[in-house]
Amino acid sequence: MTVTRGTSELRRVTAWGMVPTPFTRDGAVDRPSLSRVGQHHGRCGCDGVIALGAIAEPFTLSPRERSDVVRTIATAADGAPVVGAVLGLDSDRFAVDFDALEPSARVVLDAVMIPVTTPDPNSLRSAIARAGDVSGLPVFLQDLPRFSGVHVGHADLIEAVSGSPSCIAVKC
């Protein structure tokens, strides 16, 4: 699934590319390589890209660097939908991390991706709703227990997202 910027209108996307963040030898974000990786995803058949996911080392980046990564990937994606992961492990942290993105980075996002933060379906549904409310965007939910430390059963996950108008995709 994908969204059209600024709306909740959906269209079909068959493959999302998780974009890693490359670094230079001195530890800076390697923007030219990041751009090439983003373009490569499109050439390989990805219909959309996900920035700042767990493989992108988001916690090693400053808010300014995260914003730069999102803008660079959006430019490289050449109009393809861009999802920005905001991996705060609670809804208050999500709000802080999302607000830390510069407006020029927030405006290029088509959706946000948040981690599963609780095994309780009602609490998870509330976290999804809060992410949608704070961002004004549709939400992808990432079930990645290795990262979050949270294990949620399939029935509970289905219950949480089935009752959520904000959640449009789940990455397991």
Mind explaining what this structure looks like?
The chain has helices at residues 31-43, 63-77, 91-100, 103-106, 121-135, 145-148, 154-162; strands at residues 2-3, 10-11, 16-18, 48-51, 82-85, 111-115, 139-142, 167-171. By secondary structure, the protein is of the alpha/beta class. Strands 3-4-5-6-7-8 form a 6-stranded parallel beta sheet. A two-stranded antiparallel sheet has the order 1-2. Helix 1 (31-43) packs parallel to helix 2 and helix 5 crosses helix 7 (154-162).
Which tags fit this structure?
single chain, 172 residues, alpha/beta, 6-stranded parallel sheet
Oligomer: single chain
Alpha carbon gap, first and last residue: 15 Å
Please give the order of strands in the largest beta sheet.
Answer: 3-4-5-6-7-8
Structural class: alpha/beta
In short:
The protein is an alpha/beta fold and 172 residues long. The chain has helices at residues 31-43, 63-77, 91-100, 103-106, 121-135, 145-148, 154-162; strands at residues 2-3, 10-11, 16-18, 48-51, 82-85, 111-115, 139-142, 167-171. Helix 1 (31-43) packs parallel to helix 2 (63-77), helix 3 packs parallel to helix 5 and helix 5 (121-135) crosses helix 7 (154-162).
